[in-house]
Amino acid sequence: MGDPAGIGPETIVGAWTDSQVHEVCRPFVAGNCDIMRRAVQLLQANIEVVPIEKPEDARPSLFSMPCLRAGSPEAARVLPATIDPHGGQAAYDAVICATQLAQTERIAGLVTAPLNKAALNAAGHHFPGHTELISQTCGVKQTAMMLYLPPENDKNGRNGLGIVHATLHMALRDIFQHLQVERIVTCMQLVESAMRELSRTTPLAAPRIGICALNPHAGENGIFGKEELNILTPAVELGRNTGIDVLGPYPADSLMVRASAGEFDALVAMYHDQGHIALKLLGMHRAVNITLGLPIIRTSVAYGTAFDRAWQGHADSSSMVEAIVTAARLATNRHSLFASCGP
Fold it and tell me: What is the dihedral of CA 28, 30, 33, 39, to 10 degrees?
């Protein structure tokens, strides 16, 4: 459900009214039933919120929203657009509930609505965001965040564009000490696997991956910085030696243009805004956040709690729809992959 003070509940309701969501999965909400009823009323949707005790009880439809209680009833008292520890706790409880259900394979995957980092920390949970929280819960260290832009249609045979981030929620001054050859190669491997799994038609045999330079003009042979010479180029060489179709490092400004034109299936960005700004300009309301490297499937919307427009009834639910559809596709493709391997 996300933070009850943000736009999460209303984007869930908005997505619930989209028939394609129900065509690809059997959804239910983990969170607070009263909050979801309030969001239904806000959008004047013809949906009944039905409390359930376990996922197996869910009988979703366009007009019926099963809601698995997660967290304290105090979450219902959180005011819209406020940083409240109860809101942070509600988001935490829903994430942990859904993650544990996915770990025990009682659900095929989870889609997270936005949480507020300040509220999460105020509740005593000191994580920079969903990615780090879910990674720790799953006991996984090597994960990465990928923003994914699905294709607008399947006619051109493309599988969308993914941008994985070598570093994520940290100050710009700290990026340099976290960029290592091994980390870049790990990101290549994770995004290659993800783009294969996201294939809509025939399997994507060799996703083409581009590496964003860290410095302007890819460092100009060391004039503007030596990270390209000492870290990124060796990482590309190592990746190519292991069979990954990877090229770069290229100046990020022109590489993003080349990728949007279809020359690359995925990119590795060096830091948060290098990847986020470009992809959100291409299609913010269709973009999906996918955590790579987890033993479970987790997707999310590509924006935050948006307190400036929360609980006003006009939050865009397109990204939530895409996140749900993408999670369902990953689950279906992963199941097909495992089934093809035999018993």
Answer: -80
Strand (E) or helix (H) holding 335: helix 318-340
Contact between 250 and 213 (Cβ < 8 Å): yes
Write out pLDDT tens, residues 17-67. 999 999 999 999 999 999 999 999 999 999 999 999 999 999 999 999 999
Q: Of 266, 284, 302, which one is at a domain's C-terminal end?
A: 284
Closest C-alpha among 306, 254, 247, 301 to residue 278? 254
Q: What is the CATH number of the domain that holds 170?
A: 3.40.718.10
Beta-strand pair 246-250/110-112: unpaired
Which positions ≥6 away from 211 have C-beta within 8 Å?
184, 188, 232, 235, 236, 246, 247, 248, 249, 250, 267, 268
Q: Would you call 49 helix, strand, or coil by DSSP?
A: strand
Host domain of residue 173: 141-284
Q: Are residues 243 and 128 in the same domain?
A: no
Are 36 and 64 in contact, with CB atoms under 8 Å apart? no
For residues 196 and 162, what is the distance between their CA atoms, to the nearest angstrom?
11
pTM: 0.90
SS3 18: coil
> Is the domain of 91 the same as that of 177?
no
Residues 276, 332, single domain; the answer is no
Number of domains making up the chain: 2
Region 287-308 average pLDDT? 94
With H, G, I as helix, E, B as strand and everything else as coil, classify residue 33.
helix
Distance CA 69, CA 43 (A): 22
84: left (phi over 0), alpha (psi -120 to 50) or beta: beta
Torsion-angle region of residue 220: left (phi > 0), alpha (psi -120 to 50) or beta? left
Q: What would the pLDDT profile of 131-164 be if each residue is shown by its tens digit?
A: 899 999 999 988 999 999 988 764 444 678 999 9
Give the separation between CA 206 and CA 265, rounded to whole angstroms.
Answer: 9
Helix (H, G, I), strand (E, B) or coil at 272: helix
